[in-house]
Amino acid sequence: MSTKSTFYFFFSLFLAVRGDFEHAFKNEISSGSFNSTQTMSQCISDLQKMGLDLKDFKLSWAWRMLDATSKLRSGLAVLSDDIGQFDECISTTSDDGDITGKYCLGSISFDVKDDNFQLLYDMKRRLKKNAAALAGSPTSNYQLTWAACLPSSCGAETFEIVFSEIFRKIQPGLKVSFSEEKCATKNDDNKLTTGAIITIVIFCIIFLIMLLSTGYDIYCQNFSKSKSHPVLLAFSMYTNSKKLFTMTKNNNQLECLNGLKFYSMLWVLLGHTYSIGKGAPLYNYLDLVAWADNIHSMILISGTLSVDTFFIVGGALVTYVYMQSMEKGKKFNIIIYYLHRYIRLTPALAALVLVVATVYPYLGNGPHWSDVRANQKMCQDVWWATIFYFQNYLGQNEICAGHSWYLAVDMQLYLLSPIILYLLRKFPKQAISGLIAVIIGICGMNFGLAWSNHYHAILSNLYGDNTEFMMKFYIKTHNRANVWLTGVLVGYVIHQIKQKKLNLRMNKIIIFAIWVVTLVSLLICIFIGHGSLRTKEYQQWGNSLHIALIRQYWAMGISWIMVACISGYGGPVNWFLSLPIYQVLNRFTYSVYIVHYMIITLWFASMKSPIYFSDWMMGYFFWGNLCFTSIVSYFWVLAFESPIIILEKIFLMPLMKS
Fold it and tell me: What is the chain's percent helix, strand, coil content, to nearest 5?
């Protein structure tokens, strides 16, 4: 048998075993019986051509559209996704070139009688809460993800009519749903908007400036005897890269904080890889239940504690730097204080907002590309709230670059810090007592909010929905301030130790005991609640206490690590966290945080086939995301961080000295 004959034999076999759906699809398209409710003449004409083409047995454009459409497949009992063949669909063109393929991702819903199966579906529905096809669907029905391919002249309404008629004949009671937001064609987003063109031009200009500055730098170092101008060197990739990879030694450095920040950033990236990856098209959603039931999943679920480490470190550094500058007799200028912070953080964030608002959808395509377009729309609508740092108090669908809520909280607390720092310096005892009282008060308030709103503490609780908790509690500054204020107290203690005003002298046995208690406590913070707070019956006391106290408990553990390392009681922990390499890695932490979430979102949205969920697979994607994020963040640092630091010193320092 020739190669061509073999191919047609297996293709014929493939068509023969497709079952009722394929026959119904072909007959329905051919008969055109659905046309009575369809008013789009071009769509009707194209569907009729498709039906005529399907009557003949040949590898034609119509068969390729059928081939790109989802099939009734194995794996329904384990909630397996079938998202069709995206590229095959949108690249299909009729012989005369008049008809092109249109891919739409929708759903087929039907009643569920089994409670266990319903539980699994509810979990899948929450994981896919960003998908328009599943958002807001009734929990009494199970929705099977369904991808379809029809002529591009047809809208989502036509997709619903065609497939409703098909499935009505196969299985009455099924409901088909498609949304235009989840549809795509080859010509979508091909034409650059004015905003996208402007963004590309801006980035090209910045890159050109970087090249010219680098060339000027190399020329001055090798061929010119005159002193180079510092402004012209600000964007030099050569000099800035040397600074980035240089390790220094300074007695005022809090070296252990570099390690804490670096590993917290890795934890954030790992957690987002899992959280976004679990919402990706999967072959084995059922295995997510087994994964969530395994206690090691808490390492990922508790990854939100890494953000609290950043709050502690941030609060400590604000206090320590202020106190050190006051000891040196420097004047405090509140305008410069605020301006420095804003200039330091905003260019990198603004660059991300600009990219997401303009060119983000042009970076790829895929079945879930509507999520990318949704991110774009939010950044177009509320970019101002993002770069002025109060997006965490907007509505659920009004957060551009969702992970930037942390920057808003941090900035808002920074705005309040001058009052706290002044009181802490002038009236240290009263200020410390007041801060402790505020911390206790916030913990009490958080308990009351969790109690009255019945918030679920454990994100892997299959019986609860954490959306309200995340949007109304988790990202709000007044709910997170206690941890940052704990960092402020730690920063004051560290300053006192550095100035020899406080000498911690403790017995080695006591030090060892505190370390054991601290490390055990941190492990408890990560794993507690897995067995008791994931039950169907809501544990009001347990969930409320967990939400109110777990972050404060974690903050106390991290605080001891910081104080012990600074005061000489860190031992191997201090040695490990203070390795010089973390100085280099920590310089990329901010840009990694800025860009990583949107890169992971691009990865998820561009998936064109389901994947198997497992720790090995997620680990594989994590290292890939880390590698790609590191490359992008390197450019981000050279373009939007290092030059800003240099220019700020040139233009802002004279104002600070005046």
Answer: 70, 5, 30
The answer to whether the beta carbons of residues 177 and 160 sit under 8 Å apart is yes
CA atoms within 13 A on the CB side of 39: 0
With 0.85 as the threshold, say if the pTM is over it.
Answer: yes
Other C-beta atoms closer than 10 Å to the C-beta of 274 total 21
Cα gap 318→417, rounded to integer Å: 8
455: phi then psi, degrees, rounded to nearest 5? -70, 145
Strand 183-185 to 141-151 pairing: unpaired
Ramachandran angles phi, psi of 294, nearest 5°: -80, 135
3-state secondary structure of 399: coil
Cα separations in angstroms, 505 against 252, 439, 473, 557: 21, 27, 40, 19
Q: Where on the phi/psi map is residue 32: left (φ > 0), alpha (ψ -120 to 50), or beta?
A: left
> How far is Cα 528 from Cα 292, in angstroms, rounded to an integer?
14
Residue that has been written with the tokens 């965490």 in this structure: 392
The Cα 598–Cα 356 span in angstroms is 8
* CB-count exposure of residue 470 (10 Å: 0-12, 13-18, 19+): middle
DSSP 115-139: HHHHHHHHHHHHHTTT-TTTTT--T
> CA torsion angle for 62, 63, 69, 71 (degrees, to 10)?
150
CA dihedral over 643, 644, 645, 651, signed as positive or negative? positive
- Taking only the tens place, the pLDDT of each residue in 505-531 is 888 899 999 999 999 999 999 999 988
The CA–CA distances, whole Å, from 520 to 183, 385, 510 equal 51, 40, 15
- For 136, left (φ over 0), alpha (ψ -120 to 50), or beta? left
Tokens 């065609």, located at residue: 162
Strands (DSSP E) found in 349-410: none
CA 298/CA 185 separation, integer angstroms: 41
Query: How distant, in Å, are the alpha carbons of 20, 54, 257, 470 from that of 526?
Result: 50, 58, 20, 18
Q: How many C-beta atoms lie closer than 10 Å to residue 114's C-beta?
A: 10
395, two tokens: 């509505």
> Tokens for 407?
């920057």
How many residues make up the chain in this entry? 658
pLDDT (tens digit, 9 = 90+) per residue, 122-167? 555 554 543 333 333 334 456 678 898 989 888 888 888 888 877 7
Reduced to 3 states, what is the DSSP secondary structure of residue 110? strand
What type of residue is 561? I
Q: How far apart are CA 369 and CA 118, in angstroms?
A: 28
Q: Which residues pair with 100 in a beta bridge?
A: 93
Q: Indicate the burial class of 447 (C-beta count within 10 angstroms; 0-12, 13-18, 19 or more).
A: middle
